[in-house]
User: Fold L-aspartate oxidase from Haladaptatus pallidirubidus.
Amino acid sequence: MTGSKAIGDANRTDDTDVLVVGNGIAGCSAALAAARDGASVFLVTKATRPENAATYRAQGGIAVTRDAPESLRTDVLRASANTANPDAIDVLVENANDAVHDVLIDTLGIPFDGNGDGFDYGTEAAHSEARILHVDASTGRHLLGPFCSHLHSHPRVTIREDTAVLSLLTHEGCVHGATLERDGETWETYAGATILATGGVGALYGTTTNPDSATGDGIAMAALAGAETADMAYVQFHPTAYAGADSFLVSEAVRGEGAVLRNADGDRFMPEYHPDAELAPRDIVARAVQRERDRTGEVTLDATPLDFSGRFPGLAEKCNDRGIPHDAIPVGPSEHFLCGGIAVDDRGRTTLDRLFAVGECARTGVHGANRLASTGLLEGLVWGLRAGEAAVGFDAESIESPTLLDSDPSLPSEFIENKFFRLRRVMDECVGLCRTPGDLRRAAATLRRLKGEIDAYVRTRTSRELYELRSASVVALLVARDALEAEPVGCHHVSEGRLEGEIRAD
Assistant:
């Protein structure tokens, strides 16, 4: 097996058996599985601390089957509006308990909440029974820190933070590693296999529960290299993010414990929209919340039907710090999760040889047109382990790498900011929670022009920020184009006009 070389001067190379890009639960799981099988693993991440990964922000928890796998299988399919791939659901369900116990409980010792008789399983929207393992309403924070620490101490894993991947190294349909950047220096890392675990696309929208770094890098790099993508139209919006400055997610688990949504008139409205009321699938709740915000001016979450401070102390503290009353937490929809991404099989293999993708950047088929709550962490864990195992056994091979030019003057300080502003405005106005064919056509045309403008600068300049902007433009265009062709179901809601029963896109 080859070993990872230390970070040194610019234009160096680091050879490794497996290159993992991203340090959320999917990337960490892939790195762990590959290292367990004897491979040397080089894990790189743009993040400088666990807080910069989307996994860290996960609140509700991670679903398991308990003793009812068929029930979870049914719930995943129903939440997807019957569009999820049954074979992918089988992979998720059949591996759920073993993966969670092996990695999270036995290896990492995650202190999931108990009730005196065992685990305190929670309930969330569209789940037919309590099956969510959680730690308060900050499960991701309690999970990712120990996971990263475990890998830092693993003899076969080398982790480099604050390190971006600019592009994949490809030759005749095979991926041989990637070009990396840190502190303005670039170099090539050659790998037997490369696993993308770069997360979602929240930075494409003005309001998101994702970190600012979620610019869709992995999806863009894979697409530019020729890999197939799928289901890009299905962007899920979480219905209950705090609708104020310094927004934060108000976990679905709060509604699972009995919190109710009220409009500005004080009326509870969800029973009028769906028999499951606040626990209807996310796409339905999100559109209902937006409609009531448009109609009455505000929607709030009333958490007084439960012991909010006792059950969710972290969220209660956030509300208290901001002076938000527990009986009227202002909420609104916020971009949350991409159900599509790089097309992969049941082992995370993409359509390019030796390239794998896991986590939110991958389209496994599990979520279809709408994701069931608390299956995101589970999907990242299950597919991360499977991809990590499948990626072992290839030898790193050097190839002729492309020359990155940095010959022109630096960009004006406002260039990146202005382009992102334009991109986010188009996505918010035209490719948001509710869409029209006309808006989608306008978005595709505008984004195509914007991408062309950005590409002109990428040809002669090399910087992390510019490549992130290019990634965002590539992925935004993929979303808009797919939304013009995709079946309007689940979280891809299309109406003929701006208004449909007072539900608006903006």
Observations:
- The CA atoms of residues 192 and 458 lie 28 Å apart.
